[in-house]
Amino acid sequence: MTEPTESNVSRREFIKTSATSGAAASLLAGAAKTRAAGANGRLRIGVIGAGNRGFNTLTKKLVKLRELGRNIDLVSVADVYSVHRQRFVDYIKEQTGVTPTTHVDHRELLGDKDIDAVVIATPDHWHARITLDALAAGKHVYCEKPMTHTVEEGAEVVAAWKASDRVMQVGVQSTSAPVWDMAREKIDAGLLGKVVQFQTECARNGKFGMSRHNLITKEMTPKTVDFRRFLGVDEGFHPDVPFDRELFGQWRCYWAFGYGMFSDLFVHRVTGMLKATGLRKPGRVVGGGGIFFEYDHRQVTDVASIIADFHEGVQGLVSSTMVSEERKLDHIIRGHNGLLLFDKSCSGNSGKCSFEFVPERPQVTLNSKLKPETFHAKTELDIVSTHCANWLDAIRSGKPTSVNNDPELAAAAVMLVNLAVRSYREGKVFHVDRAGKVSDGNSSWADGWEQLSKAEVKPRHVPGWHAGDTGSVMYPPEYQKLAGPWIDGKPPETS
What we know:
18% strand; 6-stranded parallel β-sheet; 2 domains; alpha/beta; Dihydrodipicolinate Reductase, domain 2; 10-stranded mixed β-sheet; Rossmann fold
C-alpha cells in the first residue's frame, strides 16, 4: 500500500486564493443565472459523490421521498469513479424515468444553471471545497458530515453560507429527532439545575477492523478512477502518489482524507449533545487514544477519547473503541439537580426515541418535587428521510435557518473533534477563545476557574438558560464560617 501523506500546501490558503481562480469566477457568474431554486416547478438536484453514503443512502431516500410526492428530480451526478456514475444513472432512469447527466469534475455539474441543489457525499477532505463552490454557484446544499476537514474550513463555509441566501443542511441525521430540542427546553427551564457535563460514545467492534468493511474491488483501476482528482493533487490536498485501491476504497483509515471514528462517528454524537445544551465553541480540548489492536496499516486510532471544556462551565466527554462494544457508555447530560439519560435509539434510524430525567436525591437538591420522568418522540418517516425532508422544506419555504443542522452547529462539532485529533497527533492541549481563535494551551484555563472560585461568583450557564438560580446555589455548612485567615490574631468569624 502507498503510504498517504498530508500535503504541505495549506488547505485554508488554497480555499481562500482559489476563490479568485477562473473556475470559481465561472461559478460565481453562473450563480447569477441560477433560477430561484424550488420557487416554481420541480426542484432539480445533483449528487456529488455517489458512493455508499451518497448512493445507497441519500439517493435512495430522495427517490423514496419523490415517490411520496416530493416535487424533486435527481438530474445529475459527479463522481471520480465511472462505476458509481453508471450505477447512479441506471438506478435513477429505472426508478424515475430521468436520465441524469454525468461528470467527473463537480464544477461542471455546478455550472448547470438548471440545477437548484446538490447533495455532497464525497470523502471528507473535499467537503469544504465543493460546498464553497456550490454556494458560489447559487445552489442549495446538503453536505454529509463532517461539514469540513479542518476548523479553518468550517469558518470559511459558515461565512459563505451567511453571505448567501441558500439553504444548507449538514448530514447528521439524528439532529432531526425531536428529542434534542425537547431536552434543550427542559435544560433552559432549569430542570437539571446548573449543567456541568455531558458524556457520549459510539463504540463498535468487528472482525475486519473499522472501515475495512468498505469494499475494494478489481473494477477499481486507474482507468475507472480519476485518482489524481480523488486525492485533490491540483487543489493542494494531497501529493500525487501511485494508484492504490485501499486509499480510494477505505479512505477513512487515513488522516489525509478523514479522521476515523472522530469524524465518522464522534461528530454524530457530539452534534446531538451540542444541540441539546446549546453549547457551541469549546474553550479547551484534549484528545487521547492510539492504535492498540488494529495493526493493518491504518493511521487512525482504534481507541479514542475527547475531553472538551466549555466557557459556560460544562465539560464534554466522548470515549469509544472500535474493537469492543458491549456495555457502552450511557448518553447523559448531567446537572446539579439531575440528569437526562438518552436511549440508544436517539442515535438510530427509526425516528422513535426517548430520554429520561433522573433526579438527584432531595437531600442535595432540597427539592422533593423532582420525580423521574420519561419523554418520548417519534418522526413520521425514518430519521434520514426526515432529515432530507427538513432540507427540502427549508428550500421550499425560503428559510435557511429552519434546517435541523445548520453550518454553525456543524462547524462547532468539527472544531471539537478536529482539535481533539490534533491534540492526539501533536501532543498538545488547545484553547479556543469566545471568538473562535485557537491557541496552544497554558495555565490560563485553570487559573480562570480558580479566580472565579476565589471571587465566589455565581455559576455560568448554557446559552438559553432562563431559570435564574434554580439548582445553581451552594449551601455551605455553618462551620464554614470558621474558615479563612486569622487577621491581627482574630478568628475569621469575628471579623
